[in-house]
Write a structure and sequence with these properties.
The chain has about 220 residues and is mostly beta strands. The chain has no helices and 19 strands. The chain starts with a strand and ends with a strand.
């Protein structure tokens, strides 16, 4: 605050002026883009503001409930299934505004690979599903074209599938799971052909709700 006084003979006057200095925040970073599976909620991961206040916002026309718009690591619920949602992180400190940054979160269902060949040649030997690793419970019923059950896999027996991680090209991602080695319940390798499966999943969301999606699909087993 600056005080100013003016005097001219018997006349005098004074006034004050207040000057505020605002630190320029560093550029905003909204966190990495990501894909989440089987979930309608996510924790955002922005860098905290070096000065001022950060605020999350959603682009118009998209769904999502932001728990705390000023928390860089806030919880977001109510994401639409199969949609891309863009979140904007803006930092303001007085008259100083950083450039906005966006984080794109894509919600997706579990993604199966549609073919494998369990012949032991260390090339595509296993049936892998991406996004199943976060499920609370799951069951996969595999059956042949005649409708006969070939194998049932769930969260309790999936660990019985023995595989060499080194035989998986590029390695196994954290969100991937080997769910079938091509063997039937009696331990023999099934014949080449098209098989069908029904997968039921139980997913407890971050907001405490439970989702139970079902996926029906096929898998091609090669020689």
């Amino acid at each position: 605050m600056i005080y100013f006084t003016s005097e001219a003979g018997d006349c005098s006057g004074s006034d004050t002026v207040e000057i505020s200095f605002f630190e320029q925040p560093e550029d905003a970073y909204a966190g990495p883009d990501d894909t989440i599976y089987l979930s309608n909620s996510v924790l955002l991961d922005a860098d905290p503001p070096t000065a001022g206040v950060g605020t999350w916002s959603l682009l118009p026309g998209v769904s999502g409930d932001i728990e705390d718009e000023n928390d860089p690591n806030t919880l977001v619920t109510g994401l639409a299934k199969g949609k891309r949602t863009e979140f904007t992180w803006t930092i303001v400190n007085g008259v100083c505004v950083t450039s906005d940054d966006r984080s794109v979160i894509t919600q997706d269902e579990a993604q199966p690979y549609e073919g494998f060949s369990p012949n032991g040649d260390m090339v595509n030997d296993y049936f892998i599903i991406r996004g199943l690793a976060d499920a609370t419970e799951f069951s996969i019923l595999i059956f042949n074209s005649l409708g006969n059950t070939v194998r049932t896999i769930n969260q309790d027996n999936v660990s019985e599938i023995v595989y060499d991680p080194g035989s998986i090209y590029g390695g196994l991602r954290d969100d991937e799971m080997v769910v079938w080695d091509g063997r039937s319940e009696n331990g023999t390798i099934v014949r080449a052909g098209t098989y069908y499966y029904v997968m039921n999943v139980k997913m407890v969301q971050m907001d405490g709700t439970t989702d139970t999606p079902e996926l029906k699909h096929y898998i091609v087993v090669g020689d």
